[in-house]
Structure formats: C-alpha cells, structure tokens
Amino acid sequence: MKLSKKIIGLLVTATAALALPAHAALKVFACEPEWGALAQELGGNLVEVSVATNALQDPHQIQARPSLLARARSADLLVCTGAELEAGWLPLLLQQSGNARIQPGQGGHFAAADFVRKLDVPARLDRALGDVHAAGNPHIQTDPRNIALVAQALAARLQQVDAAHASDYAARLADFSRRWSQALARWNTQAAPLRGVAVVSQHKAYAYLYDWLGIREVAVLEPKPGVEPSAAHLQQVLATLKSSPARMAVFSAYQDPRAADWLSKNAGVPAVKIPFTVGGTDGAKDLFGLFDDTLQRLLQAGGQP
Ligand SMILES: [Zn+2]
Q1: What is the mean pLDDT of each run of 10 residues along the chain (305 residues)?
Q2: Which of 16, 86, 163, 207 could form an SS bridge with 90, CB 3.0 to 4.6 Å?
Q3: How much distance in Å is there from the Cα of 60 to the middle of ligand 1?
Q4: Contact partners, residue 27, CB within 8 Å, separation at least 6
C-alpha cells in the first residue's frame, strides 16, 4: 500500500512535468519576411517565428503551401501587412486553420498597416483592370519610420497575448527602438543626396520609401499595380522620360527585371534592384541590413548629381 502510493506520487509528478514544459515559446506566424524579422527582434527567445513567404516571392501573388496550414493551426499570433496585401490567400488559410485565436478582430490577429498612415488611398474604391492596391498602398515596410510605428504596436500586442512576459517585451522594444533611432539618424544623413532625385519604378512598391527620402517618381512601368508592363505602355514611359528625365529604374528582388532592363537600355539609365524586404539581397540579412543595402544601391546609382 505504501509502495503503490509512492508510485502514484511519482506518476503524478512525471505527468505534471510533461504538461508544463520548461519553455513554451509563443508561436508567431508572420506573412512576410519583414514582420517575421520584427517579431524576432521584439520577441527574442520568447517567440518561435515562422514566416509564410520569402523575399523572392511577389507578396500579391502567393500560393499558400499546404505546409502553412499546420503552422497556422498552432499559431498564437499572426503578424501580417493587411491592407489587402494577403487578400488572395490568407482568408482561406485562416478559415481552414480553424484557429480561433488568429481570426480577424481577435488579439492574435495583427495587421501592421492598421498602425501607419497609408499612402495612395483611392478616393473611390475601384478594383477595375486588376488594380491590386485598391485599399491603399500596402508596401509600408519600405519606410523605416513605419517600422518604428509597427514595432510599438506589435510590442503592445505581444504583451497582450503573452502577459506573463510583458516586461521582457517592453525591455526588448526599448532596446530595439534605441538602435532603430540611431540607424534612422544615420540613414537620413546618408540619403541626403537622393532628395529630389527622379526615378521610374517597375511596380508602385516604393511610395513610402520615396515619401521618406523625397524621391520623385516620374513614371511606373506597370500601367496599374499588378498589371504587367505592355509594350505600348513602355513606349509611353520612354516618351515621358524625354520631358521628365529620370536617374534610374527601380525594381524589387522578387521581380522579373526585363521591363526595367528594357528601359535601362532604351533610356540610358541604370536598372537598380533593391531588396524590398529582409532576404531580398545578401546585404538585407535583417531589418537594419534591409535599409543599409537599399540606400547603398540607390546612392550608387543616382546619388551624385
Ligand atoms: Zn503592390
């Protein structure tokens, strides 16, 4: 009798140990690499980040892989851009996940675009002719000031969904914000020669970047966001450049460079690839590298008069 009580006691102890793992990280499901990187900055070893897409994929055209479903099912917090960027795949994934925590309106659903001032918001909602920016420009990560705003909001959300570690998230946010402010001051100084520089963009992906740096976009190679550049439209852009010359044609690492290359050859301006998100180029290893490398590439192509 004595012995069996002891065995039961041991079993109870063992079961309790299994039920309470020493370290249960908060599972974060990030839609894009920039938000995965930010969640990692703010969460450190308190979070286990899984990123749904990579820098060489067009964020508008992603096919959700079946393996994403398992990760969505177990996620505690979803961190995406919002502003309809993931409209083509996320609603179905959320529905199929059956995960109540990460549905829109829940604490576990975080849309970064809700926390910044959106640009290119149309006066009238119009999805005609394949415009994929009908809810305003969703590419908010191209301005480091937006990253700072999203960091504040995301840290608050992490504190909300993982209240036991609230003070850790506050400390990590303070550390990140200090390093980010220093970097921003450096970038502002470095980027001064880009102010007023005229460029052509392949996709309307850099409205926030240009707003930050004072760059002027004189033409876009896609006739509408998400619509492939046609030969006729490219000729029109070339004609525009005769009266409004540009210093370079900018495209993202994930894009087919042929349209920018064509313009480069015909207008005699360099085609400049920028990382667009973390992982887009070798230099863009993290959020800091993303802006270091973007500025370096823009300055190299067009920073001198
Ligand atoms: Zn877009």
Answers
A1: 51 46 83 98 98 93 82 97 94 95 98 97 70 90 98 98 97 98 98 97 97 98 92 96 96 96 97 98 98 98 71
A2: 86
A3: 6
A4: 47, 48, 50, 71, 74, 75, 76, 77
Structure tokens at 175: 């550390």
The pTM of this model reads 0.90
C-alpha 140 to ligand 1 mean position (Å): 10
3-state helix, strand, coil in the chain (%, to 5): 50, 10, 35
Question: What residues does 274 pair with on adjacent strands?
Answer: 252
The type of residue at 38 is L
How much distance in Å is there from the Cα of 58 to the middle of ligand 1?
9
Number of Cα atoms under 13 Å in the Cβ half of residue 79: 32
Q: Which residue stretches of 20-130 are H helix?
A: 33-43, 67-74, 90-97
| C-alpha 231 to ligand 1 mean position (Å) | 21
Q: What's the CA-to-centroid distance between 85 and ligand 1, angstroms?
A: 7
